Amino acid sequence: MIRLVCTSDNHLGRYYAKMNFKQLNDRRRILRDAFAQVVNFAIRQRAHFFLHCGDLFDREAPPPAELTFVAQQFQKLRDAGVRILAISGNHDMPTASDGATPVRIFDALRAARVFSKRTQIEFDHFQIEGTRVAMGGLAPDPRLPARADPLDGVEYTAPDADVTLLLLHAGYEANVPPDFGDPILSKSRVAALKGIDYFVLGDIHRTHKAVVDDATIIIPGATERMGFGELNERPGFYYAELEGKQAVKLIHKEIEPQPMRRETIRTTNLPETEPTEYVFEQLRAWSDPEQMLQLRIEGPLPREVYHHLRFFDIWRLGGELNFYFDLDRSAVSLKTETHNGGTTEIISARREIELVAAELAAQREGDERALVEEARELVLARMGREE
Fold it and tell me: Has this prediction a pTM greater than 0.90?
């Protein structure tokens, strides 16, 4: 019985521009904890292989803390006798042709086998309980255009083995959104590539499993939801038990993600008097101190109601009540009256900055007030140069 764990898209060290220092540190810890759960599971199951299909890190130069953490996790796997095989992803792959990915550090230290060739599939061979196993991998090529075939022109020789697995970092045509911009593995390519029993794919954060002829496609998905666009995804990883080519067990193991929620308030539901208090009431009902919450306010507003809606106070309260709070008001427009009836106009970013700065300055005195006013002038001057 061959036991293996498949994971991808952990995005360790991910940066969130709107988070403060503490939030960012805590959020990165949550991402690390999710990866550690996969490692601990592999050790408990006495897995023979720990397979990683890319985007272990969120960028090509991860913080030292993330590299140290992975080194510790890989050492735990090695101490338990688990073999680690990996490829890089599009997030942690340098665009330069000779650039070394951070994952290759562990290959250089012989802590993991990292497949680094982009135009040739390499295979390593193992003998596990009398079964000949071939493990192959292909590094993603950042030079490929969107939706290209990741195996087009790639050199390949079918290995002599009882079961063969291939690690890739690409989309799969039955599991990608319409706007997907990375290479895509097609069903026809899977069918044509004889000799591969299991394709294990990273890149897409949505878990998926499919069968094409005699081949099985496994997509572990991400180990944590990375943003509000992934609210419906089920983070986790795959665990498999194989008897030769036959999958005795092939299951997706879910990881409990950080609570995440998105709510919308339509401007037509806002009262003309005390609209901010109405939003406060909704926020208190939706909030949780462990949660990432996005509030979207959408629709046209009369100018008078708009100016009674204290966005800064809403943002501040949301931040106090939640682990992280994002206020999206990009879909709010001003409703003005004309002799032909109601019309709407786009809200001026310059005017918004002036109003917020005036509100902040009014709450401060002396040097603090002067600092706010100076910052306002610098921002407005910068906007003027870019317009």
Answer: no
